[in-house]
Specification:
With 140 residues, the protein is an alpha/beta fold. It has a single domain, classed as Metalloproteases ("zincins"), catalytic domain (Collagenase (Catalytic Domain)). 51% of the residues lie in helices and 21% in strands. It is built from five helices and four strands, in the order βαβαββααα. Strands 1-2-4-3 form a four-stranded mixed sheet. α3 packs across α4 and α4 packs across α5. It is globular and about 35 Å long. The relative contact order is 0.16.
Length: 140
């Protein structure tokens, strides 16, 4: 079965080069020995992502990304919710272009779906290292 990667944008976000992004995401997933069945990138508002965070993760805070995998094992049938407003704020904080921060958040969500965690310092450092690796791959 061919994998399906969809992008649900809002009035603030219009992604370019979607086919290249699909290939990039698929390469990351394949590197980690996972298979995409269906993957949705959904841009949402601050209220929507905060409500999701509170309802499903029991955290009453804003975040830039939340990933839900509805499959198990090595299959990805998932939604990745991304808050453009938070991403844009973070891009200013980190002095990077918003498009680069969107891509970082995309790959961050993918890495979570591939089983990586970022709660401990060592995990977070590994996650950042992999994000940087995949962002560099996208540029080449």
């Amino acid at each position: 079965m061919k994998n399906k990667i969809l992008f649900f944008e809002n009035n603030l976000v219009k992604l370019k080069n979607k086919q290249k992004l699909r290939e990039w995401v698929n390469n990351c997933v394949t590197d980690h020995k996972y298979v995409i069945i269906c993957l949705n990138f959904i841009f949402c508002t601050k209220k929507e992502i905060k409500d999701l965070n509170k309802k499903y993760l029991k955290k009453d805070t804003l975040t830039d990304v939340i990933a839900f995998n509805y499959e198990n094992k090595k299959n990805i049938f998932a939604d990745i919710y991304m808050c453009y407003d938070v991403i844009k704020e973070n891009s200013g904080t980190y002095s990077v272009k918003t498009t680069e921060e969107v891509r970082r958040v995309m790959i961050h969500g993918i890495l979570h779906l591939c089983g990586l965690k970022d709660q401990k310092i060592k995990e977070k450092n590994n996650m950042t290292k992999l994000e940087n690796f995949y962002l560099q791959k996208l540029k080449t």
